[in-house]
From TrEMBL:
Name of this protein: Pseudouridine synthase
Domain Pseudouridine synthase RsuA/RluA-like: from-to ranges: 92-244
Keyword Transport part of the UniProt annotation: no
Reaction equation(s) it catalyzes: a uridine in RNA = a pseudouridine in RNA
Family membership: Belongs to the pseudouridine synthase RluA family.
Amino acid sequence: MTSYYPPITYIVPPDEDGWLLKTILQKRMDVSRKLLSRLKMTDLGITLNGERVYISVKVSSGDRVEIRMEEETSEDILPQPIPFEILYEDGHLLVVNKAAGIIVHPTHGHYTETLANGVVHYWAEKGERVRFRPVHRLDQETSGVLVIAKNPYSHQHISEQMIAGTVDKRYAAFVHGVPAVQSGDIDGPIDRDPLEPHRRIVTPDGYPSLTRYEVKEVYPRAASRVELKLESGRTHQIRVHMSSIGCPLIGDGMYRHPLYARVQALGGLAPPVSGEREAGLVLPGGEAQEAGLTLLGGERQEAELSPEEAAQLAEIAELDASIPRQALHAVRLSFRHPVTHAELVFEAPLPPDMALLQAKLRETGALE
């Protein structure tokens, strides 16, 4: 026996009396052509007052139009009891607060211990047959609000809102340095780095990408807290854009402060990306400096790396070592419910590691 997701219902108003059912489905219920074709092949996919009909029929005022989608499961995803925080759930969507360190969806070579494994297990325990459909993604080391659609209709509608730019996605980040202006736009096309395809770079030939930012707090230790709003959704967008203006995220091992590259170019060794502070920072030339740097062989070449730069890099390395991932959190997400059209707003407070970083940065007092 075929099982269905909860039906989506539309009551025909008087001013739409005589419309074609197909028009109601496409113009009022926003059913895409792809989904419409799928519904037509399903026994109870499209009904009018409880009866299966052709979409070419005309409707009358007060008629009840319903669409039903067959239940699906993610048979390619192994259910695992992985804990996650639920912010909201109904028959159409699930909103979670993703923890840092967990991948959203299984990938090549990483088939288990993902958010998808945990969500599929959770639904199976509830007896729900639902396919895992994340509407958007967060990087493995980025935490925060993430929405998952529970059926194709919901996925289509929220995705369309994202494409239209009506979904409000806001992030909190702690960055090295302070942007030159208090608030502004970073409008830099993004594409793959041809030398390192897993990285992204700002390049004139890239895909249009826009990030809006506002500085919320400035700290004496050459760092600041910024709020960011995405107007596009490129891979690593915030990390790439903030790095491009000289303010990389604290703890980001991929898009690091340019002084690290200086060290490597001079033949030194940069600290590990995992935040293991005890490994130290190794630079070429001279003796260990008071800033906490370990230098390699020979006399220091001041023209290559000044004492001020060495001290600055020591401070940067210490901040990077204080958090084991990039300090980025999806703090807020708002959009229209795909069925009720109510405006939904979800917020997630800073996770413990970022809250601790903020406390450390505030120890000597924040600057307004």
